[in-house]
Amino acid sequence: MIHGLQPGGQLTTTTAVDNYPGFPEGIDGPDLMENMRLQAERFGTKFVEGEVTKVDLQERPFRIWLGEDLYRCLSLIISTGASPKLLGLGNEESLYGRGVSVCATCDGFFFRDREVVVVGGGDTAVEEAVFLTRFAKKVTIIHRRDSLRATPVLADRALGNKAISFKWDSAITEIINDEQGVTGIRIKNLKTGKTSELTCDGVFIAIGHLPNTALFVDQLEMDDEGHLLTKNGTETNISGVFAAGDVQDLQFRQAVTAAGTGCMAAIQAERFLDDLPYDPTLSCKKGICKVKG
Ligand code: NAP
Questions:
Q1: What is the CATH classification number for the domain harbouring 94?
Q2: Which residues are catalytic?
Q3: What are the b/e assignments for 219-236, b being 16+ CB within 10 Å?
Q4: Is 253 a pocket residue for ligand 1 (Cβ < 6 Å)?
Q5: Tens digit of pLDDT for each residue in 114-150?
Q6: Closest C-alpha to ligand 1, atom 2
Q7: Are residues 93 and 178 in the same domain?
């Protein structure tokens, strides 16, 4: 398994995962991922840390580069997940670490007794807002509509939390900052068009994710947002290449569904390898490929 610089992905930046089966009291995301790693190790998985820089799926065996290092494989499971979306405001990225964050569990601690806003109305936004009430003295959710998209159990947790206030029908048009970092935001009410300013020290952006598929452009079929297209479970348009988890799932995006498609991909990869019409370690038949070593 080649994992990136954040092994475990999004689940390592979340707090309680309440809906993963087998944990009646819930489990912290990082603990769940560590358990999965230990379990995979028990079955002989070797872990390689690094960012894949290039892939070539046009020839078999497939080739995968980590900088100068080249890996070759007869079958590949892609589970590169998704990354947080940004608002598209000019100074957003330059203010990372100086008030702008996409991860409350990573950065919330730095906002003790400060005022913060959370943008978004989904599960991530409300979960982050609730988490931030542990540290911040004021948490405001800015949402572009007048109702939350979050699942009822999480939404109720935020709506019933006195430490959280809401700005409905609103969009951030500007993040105001000085040399130290964020000092406030400018908000536009999307129904009235009225603008206002809100003082704050932190802006947590929680407006969803985009799949991490830049590596596979022009090689694998994708939808408009870049999710890999799969059929018959986890098959991509190239036989032997399978996709599992948020990289191919735009509908469910849960830890349990990601694990489920991961299981499907493993079974399908195993069957694919079993059905290969040649011994991959020795030679090539039927002109499918040339495999050395
Ligand atoms: P999401 O469900 O896609 O929600 C994104 C939110 O951000 C929506 O409220 C959306 O507004 C808003 N938004 C999107 N683009 C925006 C923009 N450019 N400007 C302002 N607002 C914008 O994403 P998510 O909350 O990250 O959740 C993703 C998936 O993970 C979901 O399936 C969720 O159930 C799951 N998840 C589960 C848990 C858990 O079970 N503990 C925790 C986190 C996430 P609209 O409502 O108007 O579309």
A1: 3.50.50.60
A2: 103, 106-107
A3: bbebeeebbbebeeebbb
A4: yes
A5: 999 999 999 999 999 999 999 999 999 999 999 999 9
A6: 122
A7: yes
The residue segments making up the domain with residue 156 are 86-205
Q: Indicate if the alpha-carbon torsion angle 217, 222, 224, 225 is positive or negative.
A: negative
- The answer, yes or no, to whether any atom of ligand 1 lies below 6 A from the CB of 211, is no
Domain total in the chain: 2
Q: What is the pTM of this model?
A: 0.76
The per-residue pLDDT for range 144-173, each reduced to its tens digit, is 999 999 999 999 999 999 999 999 999 999
The token pair at 65 is: 């580069």
Both 69 and 96 in one domain: the answer is: no
Task: Go through the chain and tell me how many residues it has.
Answer: 293
Cβ of 144 below 6 Å from ligand 1: yes
- Give the Å distance between the CA of 44 and the centre of ligand 1: 36
Residue 247 near ligand 1, beta carbon < 6 Å: no
